[in-house]
Specification:
2 helices; alpha+beta; 26% helix; Alpha-Beta Plaits; globular
């Protein structure tokens, strides 16, 4: 099997949430579960609220559900959504 490029949107509970803390914890979770971190960005949503966009490499043969559930359990995270998934060459 190959490697997939995964882009996940992590929504905080409020505009005052520390996004750097969310990024740090997300990086640790993804590495721990077998992924390889590539890039993290912030995407403006509305009224000062910003989402964290995580892009990472993931082995195609592994399920993503465990990573999603772990990211949802980060303090001050409201929701997690996969926004893009594609095979990397």
């Amino acid at each position: 099997m190959g490697t997939a490029g995964i882009k996940i949107k992590i929504m905080p509970v409020s505009p005052e949430t520390d996004l750097e803390k969310i990024k740090k914890e997300a990086k640790e979770i993804i590495e721990e579960k077998g992924g390889k971190n590539r890039e993290y960005a912030e995407e403006p949503i509305a009224f000062g609220l910003k989402a964290v966009i995580a892009f990472f490499e993931w082995p195609e043969e592994k399920e993503l559900e465990e990573v999603e559930n772990s990211l949802k359990n980060i303090e001050n995270v409201n929701s997690v959504q996969i926004v893009d998934m594609r095979r990397l060459f």
